[in-house]
Design a protein that fits this description.
Number of domains: 2
Number of strands: 18
Largest sheet: 8 strands, antiparallel
Structural class: mainly beta
CATH topology of the largest domain: Jelly Rolls
Shape: globular
Length: about 290
């Protein structure tokens, strides 16, 4: 006979910060990475050309758990260094939601840089790019070099710098049925990184010259500089979903410990403790 003993102290009901899984198409906290080189669901890539930029799994710095993705980005166009998710995102929609935690060491430069690249079928494989210019976050469309916001002083003022030395939650929504974008830094929706389909001077007037909706097919994290700008970045708790992913959603299902006492004849008792995935609503756990 087996008797399951549930712990008297329940795990916290408030989930730790991390990447929301659930129905997410892509969900990674990099804890499954076993060596320094990205592997499995992630692969190093250097689109166009490769220089001295590098990418590796880091066990010294992490947002949650014990691992993150570290990119040592170098200045100059031929220093592309990215890690690409192997997941096919071509059917995610109609709105694709992306959430990641990012940490970096050097303020965004005046020159154009990219740290998130999404190959886009509507641009014949050229990329939608998230990065910075003039010290603030921006979107860039590779095919026509359009930016969101416009790089006028008024447009840049409506964006935000990416703070250094701490983990920042970056989220964005890409509408694949209309030329619309939304971007959040932490809990703030950044006004200059919002394209609503109605051209607004200094924000999305230039962006909306092209009316074809984007169709991202993949996700790449890394560094690409078009002038000056070295930086070291870390990425963690990355998720792609069909709905907005909240900052505090957990990386993976929580674990609970259950003591399993198995009583046998002749008064012998076997004792075993197993780590069992929580199964909300279920009456059965790891027997």
């Amino acid at each position: 006979m087996c008797i399951r003993v549930r712990p008297t102290t329940e795990p916290p009901t408030t989930p730790p910060p991390g990447a929301g899984c659930g129905s997410a198409v892509l969900c990674s906290d990099f804890e499954d990475q076993t060596g320094p080189a990205p592997s499995g669901a992630w692969r190093f890539t250097a689109p166009d050309c490769q220089g001295t930029g590098t990418a590796a799994v880091d066990t010294a710095v992490a947002h949650s758990g014990s691992r993150s993705l570290r990119v040592d980005g170098r200045a100059g166009y031929c220093n592309h260094a990215f890690v690409a998710a192997t997941a096919d995102l071509s059917s995610v929609g109609p709105v694709m939601y992306v959430r990641m935690w990012v940490r970096h060491t050097t303020a965004l430069p005046a020159a154009h840089v990219t740290f998130v690249s999404l190959p886009d079928a509507s641009q014949n494989g050229r990329s939608l790019r998230v990065g910075g210019q003039n010290g603030a976050l921006q979107w860039n469309r590779e095919s026509d070099d359009a930016t969101l916001p416009a790089q006028s002083p008024a447009g840049v003022a409506l964006s935000r710098p990416l703070p250094t030395g701490s983990w920042q939650c970056l989220r964005f929504a890409i509408d694949t049925g209309a030329p619309k974008l939304d971007t959040w830094l932490g809990d703030e929706r950044v006004p200059g990184l919002h394209a609503d389909g109605v051209p607004t001077q200094d924000i999305d007037q230039q962006w909306l010259v092209r009316t074809t909706p984007p169709r991202p097919t993949a996700l790449r994290l890394g560094w690409e500089s078009y002038g000056s700008g070295d930086d070291t970045l870390w990425f963690d708790d990355v998720a792609v979903s069909l709905s907005l992913i909240h900052i505090s959603e957990p990386t993976r299902h929580s674990l609970r410990s259950y003591a399993v006492f198995c009583l046998k004849k002749k008064n012998k008792v076997d004792y075993e403790v197993r780590e069992c995935p929580a199964a909300p609503g279920s009456k059965h756990y790891c027997c």
